[in-house]
Amino acid sequence: MKGDVKVNGVTARRSRAQGWFTNWEYYVMLLPGLAFFLVFKYVPMFGIIMAFQDYSPFQGVTGSQWVGFKHFSVMFAYDGFWRLLRNTLLISFYNIVFFFPAPIIIALMLNELRREWFKKTVQTIIYLPHFISWVVVGSITFFLLNPENGFINQMIAHNGGSTINFLSDPDWFRTLILSQNIWKEVGWGTIIFLAALAGVDPQLYEASVMDGAGRMRQLWHITLPAMKSTIVILFILRLGSVLDVGFEQIFLMLNDLVYEVGDVFETYVFREGLSGGRFSFGVAVGVFKSVIGLVLIMGANWLAKKAGEEGIY
């Protein structure tokens, strides 16, 4: 057939078609994920043009007046812009420094367990909070840390100490946010890294034992290298959402006393964009966050390539 390339006597085109037909179950399994990204990620990108308009719900996207970079100028001129940026970056920084390594460490610890039933039990227990909503997490936090009758403060008072108003103390706010993140999501990250370790050939450990390698040398020369590519990819993706710290969690924990350290871009967009009806301004802030995330992803991916890693593209 003209234009086709022969591959072992079968045209490349026919070979691809047979591959699609043979593995059709896998492609069907992809459809829900593809539909999700198409409907909730790609189609809404059309709304980016609202950032350059004075959007009116009555006139729609096509009829609203174009104002160029007006909303971006307003955003950068806002008195609290640098406070928002500082709070957002600090919370993201704490998450990267403390939360990101947590599932790696737990995965390494679980990988050392030899009793499979105990390993699966621990894994299930730490994974369960992933399915709890942030509303429930906030309620549990309030129950534990309430200055009047919270469990933690009652324990402190019972032992002769003074109660601490954790929920209204600015010095404790970021610690609470970080602690909630670790408790709720560390199990999910652990599963990802355990999956990476599942592909390690057990013969490598057996050979290292014969060579006299102990646990730490096995960890350093076999286990960590097996996780390295997964760690790099997840770290690059994490940098892409460095200005996304989670609206629902922050909103539930925010109050007037911690406003100075807890107000972030998500809560600001909620107040100004949704509650204030400034839809174009809210989109402009979102575009700013997306551009910063894209630059960080591309930069981190470039550095990963330079270091010999695969990167994400």
Automatic annotation (TrEMBL):
The chain crosses the membrane at residues 26-52, 91-113, 125-145, 186-205, 226-247, 279-304. Residues 85-300 form the ABC transmembrane type-1 domain. GO terms for cellular component: plasma membrane. It is found in: Cell membrane; Membrane. Keywords: Membrane, Transmembrane, Transmembrane helix, Transport. CDD domains: TM_PBP2. It is a multi-pass membrane protein. The keyword Transmembrane applies. One of its GO terms (biological process) is transmembrane transport. Signal peptide: none annotated. InterPro entries: MetI-like, MetI-like_sf. Belongs to the binding-protein-dependent transport system permease family. PANTHER family: POLYGALACTURONAN_RHAMNOGALACTURONAN TRANSPORT SYSTEM PERMEASE PROTEIN YTEP, PROTEIN LPLB. This is Protein lplB. It comes from Paenibacillus selenitireducens.
